[in-house]
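COMPLEX REQUEST
Ligand: acetoacetyl-coenzyme A
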Amino acid sequence: MDFQFTPDQTALLKMVQEVVTKEIIPYAHEMDEKATIRPELIQQLHNAGLLNLTVPEEYDGPGLDALTIAFIYEQLGRGDAGVATSVAANALASYPVLTTGTHEQKQYFFNFLNEGKLAAFALTEPGAGSDAGSVATAAVKDGDDYILNGTKCFITNGGLADIFVVFANARKSAGIRGLTAFIVDRNTPGFSVGKHEDKMGIRSSNTCELILDHVRVPSSRRIGKEGHGFKIAMKTLDSARPFVGAVSIGLAQAAFDFAVKYARERQQFGKAIASFQLVQAMIADMGMKLESARLLVYKACWMKEQGLSFSKEAAMAKCLASDTAMQITTDAVQVVGGYGYSKEYPVERYMRDAKIMQIYEGTNQIQRLVIGNHILY
Ligand code: CAA
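STATUS: Structure written out below.
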């Protein structure tokens, strides 16, 4: 066990921190207000090599391990959780192809990411949120193609992505055993972007509805076998959930750092509020929670890299880190007081951003079900 970064990780993280400090933090408030990512930032993220982190070396990507990717997301989360979410959505969309795609599918899909394009993972529907198996989008076989019809909602990068992994049911009577994954190009006739969500937090990230109206997809773009989509989705979420944890601890770190700095500077009753023991206790608790959540996120990523079963730890990491981010950002607002509630300071944004971490990629209630099932059965 080693808690130090390797020289390569140190160099990579220094570069990421520079991007975060120069290109993300100064614009985070504006992106939150405008509810959009700066278009130039997508190009800058690509130039920094941050949009294809999961692409293996044999497909011209950096071939990074999960732990290094988590370190990067943590830094991005420190800058802006919405930007981190957009970047992490590329990883989320890449896993079905990475784990189950053919060589041709990998070449095709990863080329988009290598070129700096955004990708999206389209599973959720108005009637299929926590109950992911109840996807109603239909995939009907027509010769050597499938015709997809349905609506997806809350799709991260939905309005900006060029390439999508779409889950549809190819055998409705088979329930979750009909669920099938497809690679769908944005330019396919019948594919369109619907409503843009006006969200509470992570406002720099793009979240849209997708409409599939007789979208013709060749069988060669089906990922894995017909009916294997549910397991592909679950395995993907196992891989991606620790990354939600990584973004959460980055976000929590930003809130914590702000609260510590503020507590040292803010004078009340003739001295810095940091000298009051009730404030010190809050800061101590925030620090302990942050460190323990970080360790669990790192452990889940490490287990994945060791080839160990990590589904339970992935759910634990996501759940603990996002609950921790919610507590720490809320406490940071409390430490900063009335100013913390004002948009003049970033802590209220951190608190709004933290909420979604407990909801997306499986609510924390679902994570607790997954964890409980692993422990008990
Ligand atoms: N890996 C492999 N297989 C798995 C698995 C896993 N982690 N989890 C379940 N399976 C398999 C089971 O073994 C079972 O297979 P068999 O039938 O062959 O035995 C099958 O899948 C069904 O399993 P369950 O009976 O446990 O399925 P369920 O219907 O009860 O649902 C659930 C389980 C955990 C609730 C699941 O539906 C779930 O994770 N829901 C949350 C959905 C979610 O996370 N959505 C996020 C959308 S993406 C997003 O949010 C992205 C974004 O915006 C950034």
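REMARKS: DSSP finds ten helices and ten strands in the chain. The chain has three domains: 7-114, 119-226, 230-376.
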